[in-house]
Amino acid sequence: MEIPQPPRTAPAVRRLGLGMAALGRPAYHTIGHGADFPEGRSPEQLRRHAHAVLDAAHDAGIRHFDAARSYGAGEAFLRAWADARGLGPGDLTVSSKWGYRYVGGWRVDAEKHEVKDHSLEALRRQHAESVEALGPLLSLYQIHSVTADGPVLGDGAVLDELTRLRDGGLRLGVTVSGPGQAEAAARALGIERGGRPLFTAVQGTWNLLERSCEAVLGEAHASGRLVIVKEPLANGRLGPRGDVGSDGPLARVAREAGTTPDALALAAALARPWADLVLLGAATVDQLRSNLRALELQPRAEDQERLAALVEPPARYWARRATLAWT
């Protein structure tokens, strides 16, 4: 099944998607996340909460939703919401990922919340689980968080199984992570099976702090691949509660523009000509509405220059990300 590209002649909101990472499990490593669920975080409370955010996103025009096996009940929440609204594959684009499993036991204070596993057994098990959870909604299946030093892209058995899934009609993608994410993306995009690319979508981190993947994402877009930007707010660091969004150049430029730091940071991501889709990580309806203000902005060249001072070396950025608490 082919995923429709979000052409830039379509409504701008179609270039935004909603990720389920902060909605499908009780804890996540976004700054201030613990304050987003005053009603509680039991499975039923979180399901109702997630459905309210999904309703608001869909009502605003968002049609792409991104999940993963490690996002707790994210896939199940998404499928139940779509079924309740009578939405099917022609109405939504749903992507999911394999390679991490949720082990948090629905506890905020769990010692571990997810475990990485890029084995063939994990691929087969998690693909079956995603198909059971999402049914016909699943149209893009991605390897979750490939790193430059990880072995998965050289695992012939895994690549054989992915080729089988692709030849069966499932579109494949890869998400990349870590200070070597550009190298990981380039390696993945160079893999061909049966005379054609194995991966026709790539999801990489790009934000005002971490831009190391920009060149390879631009090349992927130019070659016709679907390019998805993840973590455009740097796990909340660029939002109003973050260490960058609450003070400094981003906060000052946002005030001058009469907007919020998160909207300005998202507008910067949307301004990348190669960014087909930018994923929001909103955990509340209010956050989503604030994020959507990005669609009203056209970042000025002089503001882009001022914000360029925020860029961090990749090693520093990813080391800081690793210290963010799950709340």
TrEMBL record:
Gene3D superfamilies (UniProt xref): NADP-dependent oxidoreductase domain (3.20.20.100)
InterPro entries, A to Z: AKR2_Oxidoreductase, NAD(P)_OxRdtase_dom_sf, NADP_OxRdtase_dom
Database matches in Pfam families: Aldo_ket_red
Residue span(s) of domain NADP-dependent oxidoreductase: 43-310
PANTHER family: D-THREO-ALDOSE 1-DEHYDROGENASE, NADP-DEPENDENT OXIDOREDUCTASE DOMAIN-CONTAINING PROTEIN
Name of the protein in its database record: Aldo/keto reductase
Organism listed in the record: Anaeromyxobacter dehalogenans (strain ATCC BAA-258 / DSM 21875 / 2CP-1)
